[in-house]
């Protein structure tokens, strides 16, 4: 019995020690693995803090370039097409921003593709950004989403000015709802460091409260309270806040305005209201009304308008 007991104790002790050894071995391996991982993490962290950022390489400014569907945000509609002219420079190449219409609920930058070709012919030294923005499909208050988009798009282009080889001088041009955005950006929301050379508005709203009262279109009167979230008699300050005329000052850029005398959406009073404000401020501007045209112009009048744009810009921007 004694020998059996001693032998059992010995075997139990050996098994216990073997189990303990295995445990210690696994523990040690796990500890070493953690130390290795911590060391690797520290090494990676040290390496990340000493990574050298290479300078941006500018594009070949002697060659024209077209960049399509450049994203400036996370939404699928936040895209723009950028057209860079040949022989551009940081001092001589302004950025022309084109903004499509569509009552802020429809439209697309492709609507202005033919215009891009025309502008490249008239202004061959200009860079052009043809911008899409988020449309209001929710039938809920949506301003100032579109304003924010235009600001973000222009900021994206100018953040890459060294790469694209363009200047920080900007001209905005829009049509209808896009003209409104062109004026709002130029008058109210220019990006820091940007020089606004001019704003060009084709049938753009300028005083939203007056548009609500003056338009012959019930569709426009239905749309405006949706975009702003209220009615002008209930919250007149909101309508003033969302009106380009509110932001005109003596420092406002030269402005071109075009309207149709038979427009059944945006009446000529919208141009006349802003003209009166610009006159009082002694801001360079020009208002043209085509008496027989509506919300869209005839071919001859479009030709006349772009001839006026060329002459006006040559005279008023430096």
Description:
This protein is an alpha/beta fold and 318 residues long. It folds into 2 domains: 1-51; 65-316, Rossmann fold. The chain has helices at residues 2-49, 113-122, 145-159, 161-164, 177-187, 208-214, 218-228, 236-241, 269-281, 299-316, and strands at residues 65-71, 79-84, 95-99, 127-131, 169-175, 195-202, 255-260, 285-290. An 8-stranded mixed β-sheet has the order 1-2-4-3-5-6-7-8, with helices on both faces. Strand 5 (169-175), helix 5 and strand 6 (195-202) form a beta-alpha-beta unit. Helix 3 crosses helix 5 (177-187). The longest helix has 48 residues, at 2-49. The termini are far apart.
Can I get a quick summary?
This protein is of the alpha/beta class and 318 residues long. It has helices at 2-49, 113-122, 145-159, 161-164, 177-187, 208-214, 218-228, 236-241, 269-281, 299-316; strands spanning 65-71, 79-84, 95-99, 127-131, 169-175, 195-202, 255-260, 285-290.
Determine the fraction of residues in helical runs and give it as a percent range: 40-55%
Broad shape: globular
**How many structural domains?**
2
- Provide the succession of SSEs: HEEEHEHHEHEHHHEHEH
Record field, number of beta strands: 8
Mean pLDDT: 87
The CATH superfamily of the largest domain turns out to be Alpha/Beta hydrolase fold, catalytic domain
CATH class group of the largest domain? Alpha Beta
The count of helical stretches stands at: 10
Main sheet record: 8 strands, mixed
The CATH architecture designation of the largest domain is 3-Layer(aba) Sandwich
Rg, nearest Å: 32 Å
CATH topology of the largest domain: Rossmann fold
The CA-CA distance between the termini, in Å, is: 113 Å
Largest sheet, order of strands side by side?
A: 1-2-4-3-5-6-7-8
Which structural category do the helix and sheet elements fall into? alpha/beta
Strand content: 15-25%
């Amino acid at each position: 019995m004694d020998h059996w007991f001693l032998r059992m104790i010995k075997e139990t002790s050996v098994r216990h020690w073997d189990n303990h050894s295995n445990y210690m071995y696994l523990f040690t391996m796990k500890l070493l693995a953690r130390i290795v991982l911590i060391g690797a993490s520290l090494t990676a962290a040290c390496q990340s803090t000493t990574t050298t950022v290479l300078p941006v390489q500018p594009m070949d400014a002697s060659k024209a370039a077209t960049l399509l569907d450049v994203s400036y945000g996370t939404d699928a509609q936040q895209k723009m097409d950028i057209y860079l002219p040949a022989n551009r420079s940081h001092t001589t190449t302004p950025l022309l921003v084109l903004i499509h219409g569509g009552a802020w609920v429809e439209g697309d930058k492709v609507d202005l593709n033919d215009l891009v070709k025309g502008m490249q012919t008239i202004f061959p030294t200009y860079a052009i950004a043809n911008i899409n923005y988020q449309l209001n499909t929710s039938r809920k208050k949506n301003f100032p989403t579109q304003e924010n988009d235009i600001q973000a798009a222009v900021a994206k282009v100018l953040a890459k000015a060294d790469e694209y080889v363009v200047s920080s001088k900007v001209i905005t041009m829009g049509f209808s709802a896009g003209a409104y955005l062109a004026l709002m950006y130029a008058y109210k929301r220019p990006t820091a460091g940007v020089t606004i050379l001019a704003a060009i508005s084709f049938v753009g709203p300028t005083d939203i409260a007056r548009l609500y009262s003056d338009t012959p279109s019930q569709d426009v009167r239905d749309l405006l309270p949706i975009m702003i979230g209220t009615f002008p008699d209930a919250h007149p300050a909101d309508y003033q806040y969302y009106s380009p005329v509110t932001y005109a000052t003596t420092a406002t850029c030269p402005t071109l305005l075009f309207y149709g005398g038979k427009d059944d959406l945006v009446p000529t009073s919208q141009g006349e209201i802003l003209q009166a404000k610009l006159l009082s401020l002694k801001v360079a501007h020009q208002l043209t009304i085509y008496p027989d045209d509506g919300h869209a112009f005839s071919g001859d009048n479009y030709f006349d308008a772009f001839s006026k744009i060329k002459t006006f810009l040559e005279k008023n921007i430096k």
